[in-house]
Recover the amino acids of this structure.
């Protein structure tokens, strides 16, 4: 029989559960504090992609490097995040989610300070890679919430945590633009490092260590295989426009990605404790949730690419508004606020009508927002309105995703399953960037001596964004009928952890251990 240590824990004691007991052990911190700390960590890490946006055009001069080489400051973070997210999720399930959360925040701090001290390309790339390796914070946070919060608070809290990905991205752009316009560019990374350090200290002090762990041996071959396949895929997607979509390197990377991922999948199915449980991932609820997540990620990222460009294009184009990057950031900022406010609404709807309904409604709202944007493109307030509507839809959808995933996987697989779902969001955003880049590059017009994307090009992108949202709605339709999230969590709470794992996976010995 597993036991829980009754000794008085110290906040720094790794993986010692802090539960109330007859011997006077302090109770777990209030739910509100746990949610606030984890959401802060999620918002901080989700700013990594928008952090460099204001200085991307100036990086060749600042780092004394070519534009093609400085573009890796964005690509390197994207690839590192894709590699780290599933790996860190599995390590969290095996050895402690709080422990891996602290490791991820430490990588974020190290990466931010490395970039803050850099004046050349190599240290900047090292810093950006380290920042990308911290991307598993959000799925780890969602998994900690499942372990620590009472069932009646889980749906709302996980919706807030899931939305932190979009909130950080939306709020990070205007903050980064403001800093870049008024201070030395290194301040961007000093600020990121300080905020990450504060989040790490709060996690160390306030977040209890989970008792739900699988233990076992880490699937290193599976991690290497998945990482190799993702690197090939993401390099082809992110660099295809520069290298040429039919060029040798691009086609070779795509072919390598297909071969490696197929071999990886075969290996994972034969492994006793795989990095990603593909049998669980193939369940209808998990499979269609992940498919819908790719479509939602694609649709969400489209607006963040289109709106800033339209706002900054010269007025003489006839459709550009001639604004600054700071203006574009401020227009997008309300989207993050709306996502924050809509998260409790998403949770309430999931509790009463089920997360499937919430996901479908969110996708429909996003599609309506893009459809409206096709007609409203003339004024700044048009874009504020549209970004808020799309933000509301994404907030509803993102809030439903953790509920769908967690109700379909055992507690011991929570971090790995949520991490894989987060990876699907990232892949959707990467595909969105590639597709939209091709569309805007092909549909151009001339403004003075410059070739810029045409108005019809932007309308086409908005139609594609709406289509991706409709695809997410259709995929969500094929999800199994689901009880309201609250009742599902209450049912799960009545089971012991060991029973839950055995019932869900049927794998002997997969029950979690308790410290």
């Amino acid at each position: 029989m597993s036991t829980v240590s009754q000794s008085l824990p110290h906040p720094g004691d790794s993986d010692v559960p802090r539960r109330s007991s007859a011997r006077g052990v302090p109770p777990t911190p209030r739910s509100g504090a746990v949610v606030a700390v984890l959401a802060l960590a999620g918002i901080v890490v989700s700013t990594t992609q928008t952090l460099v946006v204001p200085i991307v055009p100036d990086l060749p001069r600042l780092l004394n490097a070519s534009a093609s080489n400085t573009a890796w400051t964005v690509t390197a973070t994207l690839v590192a995040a894709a590699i780290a997210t599933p790996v860190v999720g599995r390590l969290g399930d095996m050895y402690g989610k709080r422990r891996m959360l602290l490791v991820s925040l430490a990588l974020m701090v190290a990466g931010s300070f490395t970039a803050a001290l850099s004046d050349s390309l190599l240290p900047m790339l090292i810093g950006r890679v380290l920042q990308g390796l911290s991307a598993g914070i959000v799925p780890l946070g969602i998994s900690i919430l499942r372990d620590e919060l009472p069932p009646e608070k889980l749906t709302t809290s996980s919706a807030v945590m899931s939305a932190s990905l979009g909130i950080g991205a939306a709020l990070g752009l205007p903050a980064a633009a403001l800093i870049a316009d008024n201070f030395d560019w290194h301040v961007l990374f000093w600020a990121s490092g300080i905020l990450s350090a504060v989040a790490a200290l709060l996690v160390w002090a306030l977040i209890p260590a989970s008792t739900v762990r699988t233990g076992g041996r880490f699937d290193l071959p599976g991690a290497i295989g998945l990482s190799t396949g993702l690197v090939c895929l993401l390099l082809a997607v992110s660099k295809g426009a520069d290298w040429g979509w039919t060029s040798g390197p691009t086609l070779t990377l795509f072919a390598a990605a297909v071969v490696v991922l197929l071999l990886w999948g075969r290996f994972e199915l034969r492994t006793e404790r795989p990095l990603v449980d593909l049998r669980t991932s193939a369940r209808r609820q998990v499979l269609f949730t992940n498919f819908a997540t790719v479509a939602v990620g694609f649709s969400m990222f489209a607006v963040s690419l289109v709106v800033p460009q339209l706002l900054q294009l010269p007025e003489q184009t006839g459709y550009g508004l001639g604004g600054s990057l700071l203006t574009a950031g401020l227009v997008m900022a309300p989207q993050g606020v709306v996502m924050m406010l809509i998260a409790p609404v998403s949770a309430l709807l999931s509790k009463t009508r089920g997360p499937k309904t919430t996901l479908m409604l969110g996708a429909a709202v996003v599609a309506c927002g893009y459809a409206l944007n096709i007609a409203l493109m003339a004024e700044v307030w048009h874009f504020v309105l549209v970004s808020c509507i799309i933000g509301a839809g994404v907030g509803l959808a993102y809030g439903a995703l953790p509920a769908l995933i967690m109700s379909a996987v055992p507690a011991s697989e929570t971090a790995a399953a949520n991490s894989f779902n987060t990876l699907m969001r990232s892949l959707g955003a990467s595909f969105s960037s590639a597709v939209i880049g091709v569309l805007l590059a092909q549909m151009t017009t001339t403004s003075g001596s410059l070739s810029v994307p045409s108005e019809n090009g932007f309308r086409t992108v908005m139609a594609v964004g709406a289509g991706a949202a409709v695809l997410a709605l259709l995929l969500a339709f094929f999800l199994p009928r689901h009880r309201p999230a609250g009742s599902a969590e209450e049912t799960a709470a009545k089971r012991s952890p060991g029973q839950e794992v055995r019932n869900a996976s049927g794998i002997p010995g997969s029950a979690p251990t308790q410290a």
User: Anything to note?
Assistant: The chain is about 75% helix and 0% strand. The chain has a mean pLDDT of 83. Residues 31 and 149 are 6 Å apart (CA to CA).
